[in-house]
């Protein structure tokens, strides 16, 4: 390990860290992890999940709100459908096109169009992307690529965001994820693109590729890697066990991956889930989101990466809440990203972690 690269005060002391992708700061305050927790603790997760649940609309043979029936054969999975209660609707002829702006420049709006899809991974209710057969998981990500291509090709779709909420902000346990294709590029994505361009201008280098190369060199924040992808806890992570999965050579979207790379992407995604589950001794909740090039016809170079954001504070029953100072002023975390990566690599290493990474 190369912890010596960081000055002493950065190993366990309070500090602010800077995120070059979003331009934001995060406050790291390491003693806070030891504080007593009197807040909300969620229920103990169910040990045994049924393979089939009669009131799950995604289980084989069951009906959705729309009246459609979920397929029963494994070969019909994965599949995508427009969300029955979609947050965005497709643009039709005659729909409003012009934005609104009043003379003060304060009150501005534009009509929002798009499509929200649900992607169902597997007929079995109890499985996850980490437990379904690997070749089947690859099919899920191939479908992500196909939906990105098809929806992104529509002239009014400028941005496609694909994400998975697992036991976190998700109403269904059945293995699935969502995709929102929108007429507007997200503000977070806009900030990232602008910072990638700014870095290129200032340093003459590709920001994401440089991060991947530096992380491989520095090692401290690497959780896992394979030939084509690397999983790290970012230097500027906000959520305690946040992970970023980057291609080792820049890609714009899943469409840029060959078969081997798609398999390695799948392996990386599954490994991130397995690392979290090993550390927390059970199914860890997370929200994962894939950043890909906008589909607005712009010129992009290697902007793809994936974020894993588990909302856990210190165990799978104690959630992190973004409230107070964090909601109003600045994100804050209770352990250094190097410490989180250490724990993800060494799921039994809590004692060593306390000695090494907590400011005494
Ligand atoms: Zn189900």
Structure description:
The protein is 27% helix and 20% strand. A hairpin with a 6-residue loop joins strand 4 and strand 5 (108-109). Helix 7 (337-345) runs antiparallel to helix 8. By secondary structure, the protein is α+β, with helices and mostly antiparallel strands. The protein has helices at 8-12, 134-152, 187-203, 207-218, 259-280, 325-328, 337-345, 350-357, and strands at residues 15-18, 25-28, 79-82, 100-101, 108-109, 114-120, 159-166, 176-182, 222-225, 229-232, 243-247, 286-291, 305-309, 312-315, 318-319, 331-333. 35% of the residues are buried. It has one domain: HIT-like (HIT family, subunit A, 2-Layer Sandwich), CATH 3.30.428.10. The protein has 8 helices and 16 strands. The mean pLDDT is 92. A 9-stranded antiparallel sheet has the order 3-6-8-7-12-13-11-10-9, sandwiched between helices. A 3-stranded mixed sheet has the order 1-2-16. A two-stranded antiparallel ribbon has the order 4-5.
Q: What does this entry show, briefly?
A:
This protein has 360 residues and is α+β, with helices and mostly antiparallel strands. The chain contains eight helices and 16 strands.
Give the uncertain stretches in residue-range form.
Answer: none
CATH architecture: 2-Layer Sandwich
Cα shape: globular
Bound molecules: zinc ion
Q: Bin the helical content.
A: 25-40%
| Number of structural units classed as domains | 1
Total beta strand runs: 16
CATH topology: HIT family, subunit A
Class computed from helices, strands and strand pairing: alpha+beta
Strand order of the largest sheet: 3-6-8-7-12-13-11-10-9
Radius of gyration over C-alpha positions, nearest whole angstrom: 21 Å
Order of helices and strands: HEEEEEEHEEHHEEEHEEEEHEHH
Q: Look at the structure and give the mean pLDDT.
A: 92
Q: How much of the residues is beta strand, in percent?
A: 15-25%
The number of helical elements comes to: 8
CATH class: Alpha Beta
Distance between the termini: 22 Å
CATH homologous superfamily (4th level) name = HIT-like
Could you describe the largest sheet, including whether it forms a barrel? 9 strands, antiparallel
């Amino acid at each position: 390990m190369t912890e010596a690269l960081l000055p002493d005060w950065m190993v366990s002391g309070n500090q602010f860290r800077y995120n070059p992708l979003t331009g934001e700061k995060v406050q790291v305050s390491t003693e806070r992890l030891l504080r007593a927790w009197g807040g909300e603790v969620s229920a103990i997760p169910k040990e045994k999940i049924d393979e089939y649940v009669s009131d799950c609309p995604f289980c084989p043979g069951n009906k959705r709100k729309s009246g459609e029936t979920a397929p029963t054969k494994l070969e019909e999975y994965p599949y995508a459908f427009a969300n029955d209660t979609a947050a965005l609707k497709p643009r039709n002829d005659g729909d409003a096109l012009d934005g609104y702006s009043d003379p003060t420049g304060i009150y501005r709006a534009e009509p929002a169009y798009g499509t929200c899809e649900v992607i169902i991974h597997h007929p079995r209710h109890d499985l996850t992307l980490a437990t379904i057969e690997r070749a089947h998981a690859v099919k899920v990500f191939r479908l992500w690529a196909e939906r990105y291509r098809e929806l992104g090709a529509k002239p009014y779709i400028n941005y496609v965001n694909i994400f998975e909420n697992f036991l976190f902000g998700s109403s269904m346990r059945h293995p699935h994820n969502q995709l929102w294709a929108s007429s507007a590029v997200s503000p977070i994505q806009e900030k990232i693109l602008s910072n990638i361009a700014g870095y290129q201008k200032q340093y003459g280098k590709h920001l994401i590729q440089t991060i991947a190369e530096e992380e491989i060199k520095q090692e401290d924040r690497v959780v896992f890697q394979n030939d084509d992808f690397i999983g790290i806890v970012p230097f500027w992570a906000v959520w305690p066990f946040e992970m970023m999965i980057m291609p080792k050579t820049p890609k714009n979207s899943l469409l840029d991956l060959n078969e081997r790379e798609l398999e390695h992407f799948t392996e990386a995604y599954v490994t991130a889930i397995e690392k979290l589950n090993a550390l927390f001794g059970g199914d860890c909740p997370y929200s994962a989101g894939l950043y890909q090039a906008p589909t607005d016809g712009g010129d992009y170079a290697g902007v793809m990466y994936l974020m894993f954001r588990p909302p856990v504070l210190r165990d799978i029953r104690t959630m992190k809440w973004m409230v107070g100072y964090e909601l109003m002023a600045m994100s804050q975390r209770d352990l250094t990203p190097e410490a989180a990566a250490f724990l993800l690599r060494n799921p039994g290493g809590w004692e060593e972690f306390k000695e090494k990474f907590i400011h005494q």
